[in-house]
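queue> pop job 88
queue> type: inverse folding (structure -> sequence)
queue> payload:
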């Protein structure tokens, strides 16, 4: 006999599965501060664009991230505001990667300045 809440559990399991890869978790934790382009994410994480594209595809397919075209750029952002509660506990300062010179907040500030100056 199927439980009434089993669909909710399946949705939650899919969410956790999508977040279970460290790079995907790092991407969504970064997107909680500001929408970013794939190039910005790849440069920030020092990864090939193709790797970032694969992870963004998984996040989009699960409905966690959305892509909005802005001229020639595609900007990625969090699709579900409720995800913020989960990310706040998972992406705390203590969990910041040791190899990064900047926090995502600092990188988001740099990205905003880059965009306001029209630099691509």
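queue> result:
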């Amino acid at each position: 006999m199927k439980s009434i809440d089993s669909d909710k559990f399946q949705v939650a399991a899919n969410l956790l599965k999508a977040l279970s890869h460290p790079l995907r978790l790092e991407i969504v934790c970064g997107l909680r501060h500001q929408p970013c382009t794939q190039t910005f994410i790849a440069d920030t994480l020092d990864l090939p664009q193709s790797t970032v594209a694969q992870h963004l595809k998984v996040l989009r397919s699960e409905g966690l991230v959305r892509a909005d075209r802005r001229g020639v750029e595609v900007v990625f952002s969090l699709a579900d505001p409720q995800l913020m509660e989960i990310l706040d506990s998972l992406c705390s300062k203590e969990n910041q990667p040791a190899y990064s010179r900047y926090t995502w907040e600092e990188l988001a500030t740099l990205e905003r300045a880059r965009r306001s100056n029209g630099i691509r």
